[in-house]
Amino acid sequence: MKKAVGELSLKTKDASDTRNLTLFPDVIIFADNQKLKPLMGWELKMPDVSIDDCEFISNARDKANRLGTSVFVLWNFQYVSIYIKNEDGNWNNSPTVVFDEYKEILNSRSAVQANQQFWKKQLYDVLSYLNQAFLEEKFQVVPIEFNISNYVETITEKLTPITTDFIINNGGNRLKEYIKYWVKTEKAELESINKINTPEKFAESYAKNIIIKWINRFIFAHLLREENNDINDLLVRFSNDANINLLAESLNLIVKTTDFYTIFHVGEFEMILPQEVVENFNEFNLYLANCDFAEVGSSFTSEILENMVDVAKRELMGLYTTPQGLAKYLVSITLDNYEGDFADLTVGSGTIAKFLMNKISENRTVEYAHEHIWVADKYSYPLQIANLAITSRESTHLKNIVFQSDAFDIFSGNEIYIVNPSTGENEKLTIPKFNCIISNLPFISSNNRINGNENISKLLERYDIDNRSDLYQLLILKYKDLLMECKGARIGVITSNSWFKTQKNYRSFYKLLSKIFDVEFIITSNVGKWFSNADIVTSILVLKNKDSENENRVKFIGLNKNPSKCSDDEIDSLICKTIYGESSTELSVQEYSHAEIIDYIDLGLSIEALFDNNQWIQLVLSKLICMNKIFDSSRGVRTGADKIFIMDSMKVDSEYSYPILKNLNHIDSYMINNVKDYYFYTKASISAMKSQVHEKTIEYIYSIENSEWARSRKLKRGLDWYKADQAPQYADFATSINPEQRFFWVQFENPTAVNQRSIAFRLKGKYVIDRDLIHALLNSFVSLFLLMSSGFGRGLGVTDLTKDGIGQSYFLNPDILEDSSKNKILEKWSVVRDKRITDIFQQLNDTDWIELNYIILEAYGLPKEVYESVKFSIESLLNRRLSVKQES
Prior knowledge:
The protein contains 32 helices and 29 strands. It is of the alpha/beta class and 888 residues long. The strands form six sheets. The chain has a nine-stranded mixed sheet, sandwiched between helices. Helix 4 (144-170) packs parallel to helix 11 (298-317).
């Protein structure tokens, strides 16, 4: 035990002595002279406070947890209680040891003053005991660099509720309106905000952001104070006056001579804080001021910065932060050389930019990396974290090219200004074309995209793409304009897998990409999600400029390991095998020419089906027919309010009541003779119903007119609220729109209405005679694979199917079968059809189902071996989709 620091919270002028509100113990003992390795905290009281006082113990324990230490000491002069964590790392309810030799003497304040020799002797004995316990390794030091994230988290946890309450009760209207805007724009860009839906939640989310930003400013400022007198002066001044407004002014002046704008700049409302929080900030400031950072090495600073970034990502950026292993993998498989300029223009937490910085620094120099890596984001929210992520001890004197801009507004030739910290001058930089752009693109669907940027409109028009395209698709097209026109130039991005789907008329994002790029890699996970907390399945795209001299072949790679959970050696192996297209236990590789991919898309398959070996499809191509040639189709009925319009008994007059299949969730038979629910549909006015004496219907309407659903309908439809949105959609056959493991087609004895969770297919005239045969062929494994391949996997393990996707997909053609073959199929189908519907995995191993599929294959002149190939394709595809529900 080398040094001690005490009374941090009482050094501020006019600070109140509210000891239970402080962040740190009354005394902190360190194991080193630089005070970078705290050992323990002591809480001090006089004998009039019981050594067993619950608040006394609780406060000391909380502060020990904040410091990360495994021992704390309570001293009220009469007793000394020492608490040491047990072997399980938990605190015991009772002290490990108690010193009470002078308890009868030191029993009052006056006795303490009169008997200094006794408590000094007791103090010596306690310190001797603690020193011996330390030598015996009953507790360890907690170096600041490894525990800084704990400081940030626990301080944030303590101060966020106080700040939230202050904002709610004392924040002005402008602040509250700004917070709502901030949550719905900046916060929504980086994290799901579904649960941030009340003023209290808005305030809490904003308060946490502000607290962490201030904590980060203090830590970073103290790391720089030895090299920057202005920063040191403002920290000293704040320690004396605790004036947060003056500190903010000083920091906003500092950014004019350093390039750490995104770290130090204080926004308009960020000083609106309760005084208690400001005093806690100063206590933390004083704690850091006692730490000697003058001689620390680069590894110390790196640990501090990495821990700061990690906790900020956890606390502020939630679901969509790029895991470190995934960032390393993406950067390594995308980079082709280390010359030129590089960018991440949707930088988020800066994880990708950090690995890009490391890679260029290792292969060129740190100086070169900082001159040639450009980092931007639309919002200021993540830029503080990103700036910290790409900063190291060696680079604090180098400029970080970090700037705020919507990626759609970035053009080569535009000018930005960055302060060069080595000169203090504001440098004008011209945005170049980039050799490599690597990003984790925002997971924002067209439904949530905020339109209005004219540059987005220009891209939509230029590439003739659907206005409903997701934001990441448009960003990839934007990146093309920023890419150098050379062979080695590449784009590597993490995206949602929603682009896998084949749209109406066989439109596909792949077709557009392949016109302007050579697609090098399309990568997905075979074993769960890369972003475990997000209901989004992701993929990686690596694109390069088109090479007219060589035919491009696209590698579809399925990773059998999650890069984020791999060791460095395992990631290096994944990187190597990805680049060289080597299949192994770690990853699967399928390679296709551009023409082959187009053929599969024009068969109605989604891109997702191409991650497996489906060469057997070539054998059956001539045996298939497009669904649209045999069926008319529609999505099931959209009622507008199922609670009103779908009922479990006939509650309205028969003229307005239609039998309907509500969903297929509990259907276990392939033939449906009757359904249990009814659909209320009418175009008639109330007066017309009265004139026709349809009293049952009128009574029902009046009985529900004040219900929650009726009130909602009235706001949208006015007096027509009781009229459902759509006429009944009838089906001869139906299948589910979001199946998980049960893939099947049901047939109705009579045409029946179905709800929107199903897709209705109606036979065209000439095929009605073969309805039973068609039912069998639809449920064959070849046809079911083509059905499931027309959709793509969602984050909850279900398959996303659409009416258009199924309608333009293919199945086995009944027209080319001989009558004898039809009869054999129907004979076996009559047996299989009566079996209970099970999940597809059970069906694949069911003897009757296998025999039916053998008969079907034989009828089309296909070898039995095709069955095993189809089975493998189905199992591989669905196991990949279902794996997202497992922890990878």
